[in-house]
Amino acid sequence: MTTSKIAFWAALLVLSLTLAGPALAQKWEYLGEANIDGKSDHDRIKVGDKQGLFVAIRFRVEGGPVDFDRVVAHYENGADDVLPLRQTVRAGRFTRRLDLRGGQRKLDSVEVWYQRARPDLKVKPKIRMVGIRR
Phi and psi dihedrals of 8, rounded to 5? Predict the structure, then answer.
C-alpha cells in the first residue's frame, strides 16, 4: 500500500471517529433524589416534570456507602419493571446502568429499597437518580 493510500485511510478513520463521538455520547439527566434516614429505608422517587421516555437509569451515592436491595420502575401506563440491583456502592460512585425493559416507556417513578452499608457512620447517605433518553 502506498503512503498516500495509508494517509487517506488514516484521515478517513480520524474523521469518522470525530463525527461518531457526539453521537455515541450519552447525556444522563437528573431525575430526583432520596436520603437514607435510618439504617435501612424504602423510598419512591417521583420523576416529576422530567417525566418522559427513558431507556436506562442509575444512582449516584453521596455521604456514605449504600447497599441496594431492590429497584422497581413504575411507568405512566401502570406497568412495573423489577430491576435486579444487589450492589454495594461507595460514596462518589454510581450503580451500574439499569436498562428499562420493553423499549421506551414513560417513567413515572422509581421505588428503591436500600440500606447503609456502614450503619456505624453518623452521616445519612443520599442517592441521586439519573436517566438517559434514547
Answer: -60, -50
